[in-house]
Amino acid sequence: MRGKFFLSAGILAFALSTLSAFAQQKEVTVWSWFVQSTMQKSIDAFQKAHPDIKVTYTYYNYSPEYITALKAAAASDSLPDVIGLQPGSLTQQYRDNLEPIDQLAAKAWGDGWQDKVFPVNRRQMQMGNPPGDKNNYIVPQESQVLCIWYNRKLFDQLKISVPKTYADLKAAAKALTDGGYIPMFQGAADGWQNENVFLMLANQFSAGIVDKAQAGQAPWTSPELVSAMKAWKGLFDDAIFQQGALGAHAYPTGAQLFAQGRVGMMALGSWWMQESKFPPPLSEFVQNMDGFDFFYLPPVKDGVSASPPVGGIDIGYGLTKNGAKHPESWTFLAELTNGVGLQEALNDLNDLPAFSGHEPKGDITDHVKEMSARFMADLPKAENQRFASPAVSEALDNALAGVAAGSLEPEAALASVQAATDKALGK
């Protein structure tokens, strides 16, 4: 009896200890469109370093699921602790729901922490803040550079050279179409992809002009932007984009077709390198990324240059007012953006780092290393990709869709963006 008593007491003590540890475990809730498999690796690394904190992640496809979920949660004051954000319009849309992170970041990384953020990202972090508001509401995790990716095996098979001129681009699209492939997949039902291509075009005519226009320093109806809008329409009219592009989505449809080798070109960004790290089955084109390479959109008319690099913050994270009530929420956000969580994302080639001093580790092919180095060399000189005002971004999305559909002329479409800009700037 006595032996049984001591055994039972030991078991009871162990059970009580386990229950106590479980009761003391804190939970952080996170929402984002960040790749689920990569986020899980980041969470696993974080929880190994912080076993007292449980992280619950909810993945959404960015458009429209994530955008819809955020709106609903903000309206009901039920946002999670940490939310994925893009700088500018998306951050500003939820600024009242976010906690400034400056003091927390300085405590974690030192007073000069912003100097470790790449310049184009640093410019975007406060984009759209009201006058006098110098707070940061977003911590960048990764950077990106926009480009045109192409399937180099298809290019070799069809004897297509990397386009250097617009005529080359049209010829490449025709050869791909004649060969039974989608020429350049455009998810034109997605405002973000349309914005990205328009920014490539606009910066050909005048580098930085979209930044000036959204700041009220240049008219949206300026000749350069009208020319860019006409060039945008030309990508549809000249059959460079696929038929039915206006009803198509970049993710998951376009990305899946591209990975399967059924698409010749697609306007994406440096994040496409991550495809090589996804679990099997992988297509012959995605395996080790040997089937892909990238170029910048060639000049669409004589007298202009090829598109410069455009980019900045790919994804960042904000600490919600709900999350600010729990210190463990910042602990996770800090590790995700500039710690053990970030390293796992970089190892998966999810994208380029937002903070200096980080690089991917592990099994990476020479081809991917070379492409990553090209992106990193271009990142410091990238033109801004983001919009400060949600209303201006939405107006441009509508303008691009209307011009592409033929229901709006470029000048009238841009005049509507000007009106939205004037209203956003209080004019």
UniProtKB/TrEMBL annotation:
Where would you find this protein in the cell? Answer: Periplasm
Domain of life (superkingdom):
Bacteria
The cross-references to InterPro entries, in alphabetical order and at most eight, read: Bact_solute-bd_prot1, SBP
Is Cell division tagged as a keyword?
Answer: no
**Hey, what's the signal peptide range on this chain?**
1-23
Respond yes or no to whether keyword Lipoprotein is given for this record: yes
Which controlled-vocabulary keywords does the entry list?
Cell membrane, Lipoprotein, Membrane, Palmitate, Periplasm, Signal
Q: What is the similarity comment for this entry?
A: Belongs to the bacterial solute-binding protein 1 family.
Instruction: Give the PANTHER family listed for this entry.
Output: ARABINOSE-BINDING PROTEIN-RELATED, POLYGALACTURONAN_RHAMNOGALACTURONAN-BINDING PROTEIN YTCQ
- Protein name (Swiss-Prot/TrEMBL): Carbohydrate ABC transporter substrate-binding protein, CUT1 family
**Native source organism of the sequence:** Labrys miyagiensis
Please spell out the taxonomic lineage of the organism that makes this protein: Bacteria, Pseudomonadati, Pseudomonadota, Alphaproteobacteria, Hyphomicrobiales
